[in-house]
Amino acid sequence: MRYGTGPEVLRDISLDLPAGSFHFLTGPSGAGKTTLLRLMYLADRPTRGLITLFGEDISRLKRKNLADLRRKIGVVFQDFRLLGHLSAFDNVALPLRVAGVAEARVKKNVTELLEWVGLADKLNARPATLSGGQQQRVAIARAVIARPQLLLADEPTGNVDDTMAVRLLRLFEELNRFGTTLVLATHNEMLATQRRHRRLHLVNGELMAPTVQRA
Amino acid sequence: MIGRAGNDIPLRRDGTVRLLPWLIAPMVYLATLALAGMLTLHGVLQGWEHGLAGTMTVELPPAPANDPSLGKALGVLRATPGVTSATALDRNAESKLLEPWLGTSITPDELQLPRLIDLRVSSGVNLDLAALRARLVAAVPGAVLDDHRRWLDRLYGLALSIEAAGLAVVAMVGMAAVLTVIFTTRAGLAVHHDVIELLHLMGARDLYIARQFEREAMRLGFSGGVAGLALAGLTLWALGHAAAATNVLGEEAKLLPDLSLVLWQWAVLILLPVAAGFAALLTARLTVMRALARMP
Description:
The complex is a heterodimer of chains A (215) and B (296). Chain A has helices spanning 33-40, 66-70, 88-98, 103-116, 132-144, 162-177, 189-194; strands spanning 22-26, 52-53, 56-57, 73-76, 150-154, 181-186, 198-203, 206-207, 211-212. By secondary structure, chain A is of the alpha/beta class. The longest helix of chain A is centred in the C-terminal third of the chain and has 16 residues, at 162-177. Chain B has 296 residues and is an alpha+beta fold. Chain B has two domains: 11-50 and 151-293, no CATH class; 62-142, no CATH class. Chain B is built from eleven helices and four strands, in the order ααβαβααβαβααααα. Chain B has helices at residues 15-18, 20-52, 69-78, 91-102, 108-111, 129-139, 149-191, 193-201, 206-245, 263-270, 272-293, and strands at residues 55-60, 83-88, 115-121, 144-146. Chain B has a four-stranded antiparallel sheet, with helices on one face. The chains are: A alpha/beta (215), B alpha+beta (296). The A-B interface holds A 41-45, 63-64, 66-71, 73, 75, 81, 83, 85-87, 89-90, 93-95, 97-99, 103, 106-107, 123-124 and B 1-6, 8, 10, 13, 194-195, 197-205, 208, 293, 296.
């Protein structure tokens, strides 16, 4: 994978994510973690190679069918990408509204989830008025609200304290127990080593041999 | 504050999009004036056509009051089947016709004016005008039968040219409005690229995004259209007053026609903002759909 005529950001990557698996994606800054995630959430197409998602070869997929595939994927962006003009509630509600879910259900589910991530009193708050950690929780809530089959999280615990990091990790693990496949990119080695999950380690755009951490 | 579905792109905060009514308003203003002019002209022509239907004028060379030629011409005309009346305009009526231009100090006798006969023909009868002309000239050499057709045809030619020019103005204004919406929508797409990409990544279909643009374009196009129509209404009202002011010399001598439109013509003008709104909606939708089709 390369951007324009620049150098290859990722090369010789070959991996398989079994349904219901939980992977940590680790590696130093600039190793290509975000680029690999962008390929997985269909923001970019590989310059060469093959990506198969949910049994579909994405290079053969018609553009009009991408929306259905994307609805199965939840993403927590490194920079959150919250919409500044919308409240925390409306930001979290976006994936449901995009999918055409009834407003009564949107209200119930979003309120419950925001309460769960400790933001019950921030439903109407705009992202600019929230702390970094609160914004991150809103971003996570938005990524999981539609119960995606694949959840890709780019440094999802980077801006929260340890207690909240563990709590969020438990949320991810709970989702994983219900069948969601998870890839959690982090440069926090401690976090990755604390949990018994598979680990994909990137160095200079190349994938090192997969390992499984011991608890 | 909890919002509602399909309102995710902050188009109302976008300065470029907000400019749209200010661009649409003068376009609808120009289109309304051009259309009103065309419709008025159409009405005036129909009025003339209606007024002149079944009427003709016979013009006899100037002659003294006791000359028998007038009687001869009247005799020919009244003997023609289909002619319902043939009335010679007396000197008083001729003086009255000329009064707005010449005043009361000059009489038609002093000017050696031709004598006129007002001819009325049954509406269902197809007169043989060539034969009637020949009989008239045989009775009164120099007599002229005017069925107003030549005059009306020339007027129609002029009116058609003016209407074509009016249509061209409306078409160009429409095209300019469409281009304005295209450029404004493209600017909106560029400004909100990140939001659009995010919505796509969440699984939003192109139509979901396009609908937000088209709704806003319609709202702005319609409001600009209403403003343009209101301004055009004021202008038409002022022109109507100006037309009435030229009427001081009497109905026959007024310089501008009345700006009187019938109900369906008013309806056409009032529908212009709605048309502007729908044109904006359709243009925005097509522009967004085409632009999104190029996104990954």
